[in-house]
Design brief:
This protein is mainly α and 396 residues long. The chain contains 17 helices and no strands.
Length: 396
């Protein structure tokens, strides 16, 4: 009896590990080329405004696709199929970007990358099926760990490829890691995934009107605008413009992600849990003010490195606190609806950030662009003190 239990436990651990590796390579495929994408587009003599649109359509796609895809997943229960298709779409997206410089095809490839990222809901729901219901929190923390590990792997692989060859080569690494994810996904097993009740339009509208969800979602729009317009796009272009090589750009990206992971550990501790949410949110935005001003005014990688750490800490604080705030006062049976709405809404910021930054960089340079974003962050910090405390618990 004991031997059977031990074998079952080992089997479950292997299933979770295989799924975790699939997740890791999926996100590696999405991110291998991210630090080098805008520098690569510069080698194609692309205008900053067009670069902004190309980067931003990734978020716009998620804004459109995420909720319908979640409804389809809930209705069909075909989570494994969706996991595989997500891995497939990120691979095809990277392959198209690698083989073509045709602008319409590049936009199509970026749309596919957004579609792939929208499959994340299927990953999270399926993985929780490998755990008991009361262990769902542990399951989410574990799969997010694989997510972040995949991003770190991506930055190391991308850095090696860009250093050894050129800024285009990280796209090939995205193709290869995506292919690995597709192959691994074919061997994952269905867990005890519970088919969820599909979200209805009236439920979505009710969530939309709930200020306990809407207010954090609007702040998340600003957060995503700041992150996608800087750290995940034009910060690398700033580094390139001051003469940074591929290794230096890669190190800067790793510092941002590494500080996010370290901060996530801190945020799970008792000290962070005791802090008021509007204080934490304000601190996160203030850190982004410091980040944007440093990046926009610097002429040295030795200032960009610590700025990346500051930005990563700010991003991690805002991501964690705003996400938890969006579902804090929502009944358990409606938390998935609230989270889906929250994630769809912040797609606005993912789209707008690179587009707005692209225009400011083109017409007023990096100092003007990053200076405007610092102003956005400062305004958001003040607004957090005004609006977040007004969120009161209520029946949802």
């Amino acid at each position: 009896m004991g031997e059977t239990t031990a074998n079952n436990n080992r089997s479950i651990k292997m299933v979770r590990l295989l799924f975790g590796l699939t997740t890791m390579f999926f996100w590696a495929s999405e991110y291998c080329h991210v630090p080098y994408f805008t520098p690569y587009l510069r080698t194609l003599s692309m205008a900053a405004s067009l670069m902004g649109y190309l980067v931003g359509c990734y978020g716009f796609t998620q804004l459109i696709v995420r909720i319908p895809l979640g409804i389809f997943a809930d209705r069909s229960g075909k989570y494994k199929l969706l996991v595989t298709s997500g891995c497939f779409f990120t691979t095809v997206s990277s392959l198209l970007l690698f083989i073509t410089t045709n602008i319409p095809l590049m936009f199509f490839a970026r749309i596919l990358a957004g579609v792939a990222a929208s499959h994340w809901v299927a990953f999270t729901v399926m993985f929780t099926g490998y755990y008991k219901p009361e262990e769902s929190g542990k399951a989410i923390a574990t799969i997010n760990g694989f997510n972040n590990t995949g991003k770190l792997l991506a930055f190391f692989l991308g850095m090696a490829a860009a250093t050894l060859v050129d800024y285009r080569m990280p796209l090939l690494m995205s193709v290869l890691t995506g292919f690995v994810a597709v192959v691994l996904s074919l061997f994952i097993k269905e867990g005890q995934t519970r088919r969820r009740e599909p979200v209805s339009i009236p439920e979505l509208l009710k969530v939309f009107k709930d200020k306990t969800v809407l207010v954090p979602a609007l702040f998340a729009v600003i957060m995503q605008m700041l992150g996608q317009g800087t750290a995940f796009s034009f910060t690398s272009d700033v580094a390139r413009s001051i003469g940074a090589n591929a290794i230096e750009i890669g190190v800067a990206s790793c510092l941002f992600t590494g500080s996010q992971i370290a901060t996530a550990v801190f945020l799970s501790g008792s000290f962070a849990q005791r802090q008021k949410s509007h204080h934490m949110i304000a601190v996160g935005f203030v850190l982004f003010v410091c980040y944007c001003l440093t990046i926009g005014l610097t002429g040295s990688m030795w200032l960009i490195y610590p700025a990346q750490i500051i930005g990563g800490i700010g991003n991690a604080i805002l991501t964690s606190v705003l996400m938890s705030s969006s579902i804090r006062y929502i009944k358990p049976e409606k938390k998935s609806t609230a989270m889906g709405f929250y994630q769809a809404i912040y797609g606005i910021g993912m789209t707008a950030g690179p587009v707005i930054m692209g225009y400011f960089v083109e017409y007023s340079g990096y100092t003007g662009g990053f200076g405007i974003f610092a102003a956005f962050a400062a305004i958001a910090a003040v607004l957090a003190f005004v609006f977040i405390p007004r969120i009161q618990p209520k029946e949802a």
